[in-house]
């Protein structure tokens, strides 16, 4: 207890050394002045006053710098909600060449970022990189856990999330990404399957990172924020640890337009994320529809 108190006192003195010295000097010369130690000779007193003012100035400058750094950190982050989240994502897409996504099923990314990236790569003829980390559909317990996370954010009485629904949404995201990766020359998509549930959606671009809750508000950190580098490091490490989906192999199995059910089944086999045997033709058609693809024989 005593050691902890001594340590805290030492830390306080180190942080406030200028102010402490200024106070000590001022008190010392105030006492000496009361007892008229220096008499009419004011040279020493004036020097002490100048030293005290200098220490006070140093203290104020240090505090101002600390406050400025704190304000800069605050100004590099903002809270957005509702339509502002979509606006922040759209703005980020317009000014980036690469995108890292980490989330659950990738529903929103499949509907917004993926087609927008494909369009920019096709029309502007510039290389774009898209990294996706989503839950592993082969992990039943994981899909059930994420379904519970999403169900907790659903309005009362709405359609409940289930493990099967989570799995089908993930398959739809993989299918849509594989198809765009096949068709768009300058679009490079990578997919990893995570073995853990993320309760947040992460979208990182060249200009910043957006962290959002399911159907909730989001925090936007600019690139010059110290949090940006931290988030980028976290997403990179997480991506590297997740199971890789070999999208390159899918380029040798191009889908027809529209594709047949067997083509889709074969594609998932090539991607090493084979569909469950319980997925019938109706389920395959539903997955294709969610991916924006009409299955020809259904």
Record the SSE blueprint.
Layout: H1 2-15, H2 17-34, H3 43-75, E1 77-80, H4 83-94, E2 98-102, H5 107-111, H6 113-124, E3 128-135, H7 140-151, H8 163-183, E4 187-194, E5 201-204, E6 208-212, E7 218-222, H9 226-241, E8 243-245, H10 247-250, H11 261-270, H12 281-290
Parallel strand pairs: 2-3, 3-4
Antiparallel strand pairs: 1-7, 2-5, 4-8, 5-6, 6-7
Helix pairs in contact: 2-3, 7-8, 8-12
Question: What do these coordinates show?
Answer:
By secondary structure, the chain is α+β, with helices and mostly antiparallel strands. It contains 12 helices and 8 strands. It has helices at 2-15, 17-34, 43-75, 83-94, 107-111, 113-124, 140-151, 163-183, 226-241, 247-250, 261-270, 281-290, and strands at residues 77-80, 98-102, 128-135, 187-194, 201-204, 208-212, 218-222, 243-245. It has an 8-stranded mixed beta sheet, sandwiched between helices. Helix 7 packs across helix 8 (163-183). The chain is globular, with a radius of gyration of 30 Å. The termini are far apart. Mean pLDDT is 81; it is low at 67-73.
Spatial separation of the terminal alpha carbons: 75 Å
Strand pairing plus helix content: what structural class?
A: alpha+beta
User: Spatial order of the strands in the main sheet?
Assistant: 1-7-6-5-2-3-4-8
Rg of Cα set: 30 Å
Helix % is 55-70%
Quaternary status: single chain
């Amino acid at each position: 207890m005593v050691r902890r108190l001594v340590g805290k006192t030492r830390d306080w003195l180190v942080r406030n050394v200028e102010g402490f010295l200024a106070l000590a000097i001022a008190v010392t010369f105030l006492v000496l002045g009361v007892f008229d130690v220096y008499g009419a000779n004011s040279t020493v007193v004036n020097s002490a006053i100048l030293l005290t003012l200098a220490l006070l100035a140093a203290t104020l400058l240090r505090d101002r710098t600390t406050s400025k750094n704190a304000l800069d950190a605050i100004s590099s982050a903002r809270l957005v909600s509702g339509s502002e989240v979509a606006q922040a994502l759209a703005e980020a897409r317009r000014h980036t060449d690469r995108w890292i996504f980490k989330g659950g099923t990738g529903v929103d990314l499949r509907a917004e970022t993926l087609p927008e990236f494909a369009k920019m790569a096709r029309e502007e003829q510039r290389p774009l990189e898209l990294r996706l980390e989503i839950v592993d559909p082969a992990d039943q317990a994981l899909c059930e856990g994420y379904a519970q996370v999403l169900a907790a954010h659903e309005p009362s009485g709405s359609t409940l999330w289930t493990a099967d629904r989570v799995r089908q949404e993930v398959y739809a995201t993989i299918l849509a990404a594989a198809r765009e990766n096949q068709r768009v020359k300058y679009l490079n998509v990578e997919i990893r399957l995570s073995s853990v549930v993320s309760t947040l959606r992460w979208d990182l671009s060249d200009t910043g990172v957006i962290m959002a809750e399911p159907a909730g508000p989001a925090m936007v950190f600019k690139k010059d924020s110290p949090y940006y580098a931290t988030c980028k490091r976290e997403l990179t490490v997480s991506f590297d640890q997740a199971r890789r989906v070999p999208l390159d192999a899918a380029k040798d199995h191009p889908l027809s337009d529209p594709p047949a059910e067997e083509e889709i089944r074969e594609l998932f086999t090539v991607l090493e994320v084979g569909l469950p045997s319980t997925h019938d033709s109706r389920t395959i058609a539903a997955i294709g529809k969610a991916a924006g693809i009409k299955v020809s024989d259904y």
